[in-house]
Amino acid sequence: MTNIGSGPGRSRQTRVYVRGLGGERPRVPVGPDRLEAAARAKLSAPDFAYLAGGAGTERTMRANLAAFERVQLLPRMLSGTRERDLSVELLGLTFPTPLLLAPVGVLECAHPQADLAVARAAAQEGVPFVFSSQASVPMEACAKAMGDSPRLFQLYWGTDDEVTRSFVRRAEACGARAIVLTLDTTLLGWRPRDLDLGHLPFLRGRGIAQYLSDPLFRSRLDTPLPAPAVQPPRTPALLRAGAELAAKGRAFGLTPTQMRAAAARFTATYTRPDLGWDDVSRLREWTRLPLLLKGILHPEDAREAARRGVDGLIVSNHGGRQIDGEVAALDALPGVVSAAGSLPVLFDSGVRTGSDVAKALALGARAVLLGRPYVYGLAVAGEAGVREVIQNVLAELDLTLGLLGVRAARDLGPGHLVPLASQTQP
Fold first, then answer.
1. Calpha distance 24→37 (Å, rounded)
2. How far apart are CA 301 and CA 284, in angstroms?
3. 3 state DSSP class of 181
4. Nearest-CA neighbor of 345 among 361, 357, 359, 331?
5. Whole-number Å distance between alpha carbons of 341 and 309
6. How do 93-95 and 88-90 pair as beta strands?
7. Can 318 be counted among the known catalytic residues?
8. Which of 111, 199, 318, 416 is catalytic?
9. One digit per residue, pLDDT tens: the chain, 426 residues?
10. Alpha-carbon gap, residue 95 to 90, rounded angstroms
11. Is 324 part of a structural domain of the chain?
């Protein structure tokens, strides 16, 4: 019998269809819309709002998705291969696929095992995981769960440089392959879904595990901060929030007083509105790890990053969570790639499917970070749900390459896309 070829695409399809003969359907919906709906059904309104919401009227979120709709793939016939090579070279390493899991904060909103479940799933699937500064589990625990599997650390630079440096040292010690400095969250964006519910998880001690486990941050807890200008009303809801905060503190060996101080200090210091290019140069001096800048959209910022000696860029608009009405990340990608020269450019924001990954790679991205879909998988089925989402995205990417007539993911380029000028306008 002729070998009809294999790969993650055919393997995943076969597994799903064969199990379907026995009436078994996937635990995690395959379609992006159904996946999001399933996650919404599992989560409380505040938790879903935090994970799914965007800035303002969410025009940027919609623009991210619309940009993928405009880009059209152009297949070639009779040029396929029985197996596709998904591997990519990045940061001096070879990764088995061009997919990474993006840093997402407060994953305990999705599932009690939070970052730990994601770390285990990423390791099992051979996909790098970018630890978030706003994690619900300390980076050391996630690193231990991943063994030798690759991980990176995403850094938010707050107003306390010593705590920032401590995070960098901890990332080095736990085997991070790179530091990812996020540039687009020097202020928290205007997010109506959260505002309408009066819900910021950090005030409840959620998503600040990196801080609660950091010796330098903890050493600050006995130094009082000025009293906040606004005090919460004394209601039963406040008592419940206080109990949640105290329980979180006990898990980290902190008293209720220390935990209240930790939440207050975090919210007062975690953003840095005056972060500048000279800070990037300082960070470059602090670590020998590769340094990636996340949130680049303007070509001139890409050129300046190259002049500052960084090792790579991530084109991103934070999934539409920061500025309402800013440029879609995919629309900005070609200009940044052109300006970046030899710097590798990665991409996130709006990625939902394997064909989306193929489009970003064809537009010049070296690799792609997946965000909300794996979070929804986590909400639906924990670690297993994350694994299913990864498998589905990579399966579709593999099949897309085969149907395009592309032998390797790294071979994707503009020639596999319909030029925008040639597309039929409505």
1. 20
2. 16
3. strand
4. 361
5. 12
6. antiparallel
7. yes
8. 318
9. 344 457 899 999 999 999 999 999 999 999 999 999 999 999 999 999 999 999 999 999 999 999 999 999 999 999 988 999 999 999 999 999 999 999 999 999 999 999 999 999 999 999 999 999 999 999 999 999 999 999 999 999 999 999 999 999 999 999 999 999 999 999 999 999 999 999 999 999 999 999 999 999 999 998 877 767 677 888 888 888 889 999 999 999 999 999 999 999 999 899 999 999 999 999 999 999 999 999 999 999 999 999 999 999 999 999 999 999 999 999 999 999 999 999 999 999 999 999 999 999 999 999 999 999 999 999 999 999 999 999 999 999 999 999 999 999 999 999 999 987 655 444
10. 7
11. no
DSSP symbol at 286: H
Determine the residue type at 253: G
Residue 393's H or E segment, with its range, is helix 372-404
In one letter, which amino acid is 50?
Answer: Y
Amino acid making up residue 340: A
In a domain, 28, yes or no: yes
Number of domains in the chain: 1
Assign 309 to helix, strand or coil: coil
Within-domain flag for 27: yes
Neighbours of 37 (CB within 10 A): 13
The DSSP secondary structure of 81-148, one letter per residue, reads -SS-B--EEETTEEESSSEEEPP-S-GGGT-TTHHHHHHHHHHHHT--EEE-TT-SS-HHHHHHHHTT
Query: Tokens at residue 95, please?
Result: 């990764």
Q: Which residues contact 335 (CB under 8 A, 6 or more apart)?
A: 299
Which residues are 155's β-sheet partners?
A: 181
Residue 24 lies in a domain: yes
Residue type (1 letter), 374: Y
Domain housing 13: 7-37
The pTM for the full model equals: 0.95
Per-residue burial over 379-402, b if 16 or more Cβ lie within 10 Å, else e, is: bbbbbbbbbbbbbbbbbbbbbbbb
